[in-house]
Amino acid sequence: MKNLLIIYLLLTGLLLTKTSFSNEDGKANIDEGSSVQKLSDTLGTNLNKKAKDFNISWKAGKGLSFESPGEFKLSIGARIQARYDTWVKSDDPQDGRGNEFGTRRLQMTFAGYAYSPNIFYKYVFNTDKNGEEIAGGTKDAGLGVEDAFFGYKKGMFKITFGQMKIPFDIEELASSSGLEFVDKSSKRHVWERDHGIKFDFSPVKNKINLAYYLGTGTGGNNSESYFKQNGNTDDHIHAYRIDITPLGQYKYSQGDLKGSDLKVGFGAAYVQWNNLTVNAAYEILNDAGDDFVKGKLDDILDKLEIAFDNSGQTTAASTDFDVSAMTYDFRAKMSGFAFEYNYSILTGKDQENSAVGRASTDFHRYQLSYTTPSGWMIGYRYSIMDESTGDNSTNSKGDNHEEISYGFGKYFAGHNLKLQATYSELTEEKTGDDAKDEIWMFQAQMKF
Predict the structure, then answer these.
(1) CB of 338 closer than 8 Å to CB of 256
(2) Which residues make beta-bridge pairs with 69?
(3) Would you state the pLDDT for residue 45?
(4) Which of 36, 62, 144, 295 would bridge with 222, disulfide CB 3.0–4.6 Å?
(5) Does domain 77-447 have CATH number 2.40.110.10?
(6) Low-confidence ranges of the chain (pLDDT < 70)
(7) For residues 145-183, b (16+ Cβ closer than 10 Å) or e, as one string?
(8) Extents of the domains making up the chain
(9) How far apart are CA 376 and CA 405, in angstroms?
(10) pTM of the predicted structure, to 2 decimals
(11) Which helix (H) or strand (E) holds 81?
(12) What are the helix (H) ranges across 114-192?
């Protein structure tokens, strides 16, 4: 009931106006040029259905744009990441050494607006060397749909429909094209893209934004059946996020590449994913009700399985398994310096079986960098994940995963054209000797 009320209030705020279905009758009661008239024109009969006199332009990172101002816009962009990794692993049964070269991402983006500048859309297709290490990708298809959404924005309100990121922590909300290090933290809580609807409300432009997201809960782009009107239909995701940037707009892209004045950001988010039907392997019943899978939200389920096992809890096999997550973050940048911190905790609880109880895993990340006016970057990142918060039964030493990373880079055209190198030391606590990995990652990115 609470979530339905939120949806109702947001829709009411977005659409609370008299929409004319007849140009003659509707406009008779509305002052010309009023905000009500403008919204009526957008949602009523005055949508732009034809466009001509297109302007063609190109901007680095935004792509090639075809625009008939106020009527239609299409921007076509692309991004490629070429990457080389080399590593040494202490617990490898062989020599523990290896290296690999590949295309980390090859991405095509189509974005713009249609009918009105208020009606926007975005479609992002992505692939890599094997098609399974990117959002929305599957091993068989080799090509994934990352983002596929459209929406409407007006003043303080925005509503978005389709497949998009679940609004959780700032590291995951940052695009992989806008990172200071070659990749994100190796251990973190990954809420993948999902199909759903998102409401944004910005009472103070560029300074406060409130978001509510309602998702299907099965994860974006997996092979499950939809609209079957049966099976596990009450496992939806509800996500709430607030961003406060008191000194002005602060995008999620990392680093301070322009030597800006002081900017700070505070954020927090909470996610509910309740009433899951899960088996002993922590797979959920699909929407068709005929199979158990993990889908694209497998990272969340895998981490909860480890948390339950390591804390000595009974394996959860339930028709009423609840998942929740909370995060808060801080970021700041000025004169080439940039700092980020985020904390998150992921918890699972069996509502049916008290013997199962609950287990959780938490994560911290600290990141500091400096970028010179000529585009050279040096950075440091420390992150740690406790796989089962507090005491655990499998290892008296603990079950922490610690990562220390050093980043180096050269920006030629901001994040759009850059070379990056990252050295990471990963330590996993184990009974006896800890497992240690040393990894070098090199990457070149071109986005146009």
Answers:
(1) yes
(2) none
(3) 47
(4) 295
(5) no
(6) 1-45, 92-95, 128-142, 218-234, 286-290, 315-316, 353-356, 390-397
(7) bbbbbebbbbebbbbbebbbbbbbbbbbbbbbbbbbbbb
(8) 77-447
(9) 17
(10) 0.84
(11) strand 72-89
(12) 170-173
